[in-house]
Amino acid sequence: MNIFQVIDSYQYEIESRYQEKSMLTNLFTEHKFIGWLGLFIVFFSIFAIFVFQFLEWESNDNNKS
């Protein structure tokens, strides 16, 4: 039982000192404008692809009719 307490306290110390260094997290905390601008560019690019693809499908359907 005593060995489990030692392992548990050691794991607690490791977890409390652990800090994840993520470039994506740093992008939104340190460079907020660039991070949000990039996120909006990706979002609107995907949205534009869907819109133009939908318009192409509708155009093809109208030509077949």
Give an overview in words.
The protein is mainly α and 65 residues long. It has a domain at 32-65. The protein is 86% helix and 0% strand. The protein contains three helices and no strands. Helix 2 (23-29) packs across helix 3 (32-64). The longest helix has 33 residues, at 32-64. The radius of gyration is 25 Å and the shape is elongated. It starts with a helix and ends with a helix. The model has no long low-confidence stretch (mean pLDDT 81).
Task: Give a brief outline of the structure.
The protein is mostly helical and 65 residues long. It has helices spanning 2-17, 23-29, 32-64. It has a domain at 32-65.
Topology:
Layout: H1 2-17, H2 23-29, H3 32-64
Helix pairs in contact: 2-3
Oligomer: single chain
Helix-strand pattern, N to C?
HHH
Alpha-carbon distance between the two ends: 78 Å
* Low-confidence runs of at least 5 consecutive residues: none
Shape: elongated
Q: Count up the helices.
A: 3
